[in-house]
Amino acid sequence: MNNNIFPLSMFDNIKAHPENYRLIERIPLTVNGVDTHFPIKLNEPVEGERVHTVVFLDTETTGMDFEKCKLIELGMVKATFSLDRKIILSVDKYYDEFEDPKEPIPKEIIEITHITDDMVQGHSFDDDMVANFLAGRPLIVAHNAGFDRPFFDKRFGMLNNLSWACSLKEINWSKLGFNGQKLEYLNSCLGYFYDAHRAYTDALALLWILYQKPDAFACLVDSALSKSIKIDIKGNTFSINNELKKLEFRFDSFNKSWYRYVGSKAEAVRLQETIENTYKQGDVNFTVKLTELTAKTRYKK
Fold it and tell me: E strands within the chain?
């Protein structure tokens, strides 16, 4: 049986025992051909409200290290949102293109993305088209901006001063009732699926979950409009890893450091003093760095 085809033969079982089944639907925006009907209105605008542009962005790359690896696909979806009500109003247009990295795509990347050397051969991003797509300084939203932004900024250096927000790190999904943060999981909880690990489709899936959960989108907009302080802890912290987790720090495997974002300098200083006074002794030696961030500087490398 093809797992991608709905099993119509099971209708009798479903009717007899509906409590044993759940229906999951393809995200409407990812149905083949829907993008030919853009723009699509999702919410009615209100006269006099402030309307801004947001671009949902995702990348596919040849690996995890932005300094050594390259972009092979860039997907972007432009939408409008109400800055007053903090809801998405419309899906307007998209950009989706491959770029030949001029080197073989690793086997493990092909297995995840299904992007092959033949698919990218001869393709390249149109720098002017990308710049025009991002004209007007929209808010860029990625589900892991800490990964996507360094790759994007390296490839499009003239666009490295845009405002970014991260739906993975700037939304507390657990407080919204979710037990995970992956994009596929979030959509599946609401009864939707899509073909993941392709940049354009992932961008649509991100837009969809934030349209379906306007409280999550509101959190993201508020975060993008606010300053924050990033607390970085680096050094010999192995023996206090569990304590740092309890304090809601996350481990950055790329930089080999623990980090957390807080909303004010005073809160950051209090947390820094608590950690240093409580744990910094003997072999437990580390540095604590505080960095003030805005949407223009978050997730830059």
Answer: 25-26, 40-41, 51-61, 71-82, 87-98, 139-142, 163-166, 192-193, 228-235, 250-252, 257-262, 286-293
DSSP state of 144: T
- pLDDT at position 40, please? 98
Distance from C-alpha of 51 to C-alpha of 87, rounded to nearest angstrom: 10
Q: What topology is assigned to 8-225 in CATH?
A: Nucleotidyltransferase; domain 5 (3.30.420)
Q: What is the DSSP string of 17-32?
A: -GGG----EE-GGGST
Question: By three-state DSSP, how is residue 286 classified?
Answer: strand
Is residue 244 a contact partner of residue 237, using CB atoms and an 8 Å limit? yes
Return d(Cα 211, Cα 65) in angstroms, integer.
Answer: 31
Q: What is the dihedral of CA 119, 125, 126, 127, to 10 degrees?
A: 180
* Predicted confidence (pLDDT) per residue in 192-224, tens digit: 999 999 999 999 999 999 999 999 999 999 999
Contact 208, 214 (CB under 8 A): no
Amino acid in position 281: Q
Q: Are 206 and 245 within 8 A, CB to CB? A: no
Provide the pLDDT confidence category of residue 173 given band limits of 50, 70 and 90.
Answer: very high
User: Phi then psi for 130, rounded to 5 degrees?
Assistant: -65, -45
- Cα 100 to Cα 102: distance, rounded to the nearest angstrom: 5
Closest CA to 43 of 51, 35, 32, 55: 51
Could you tell me the pTM of the whole model? 0.88
- Per DSSP, 62 falls in state S
pLDDT confidence of residue 1: 36
| 262: β partners | 229
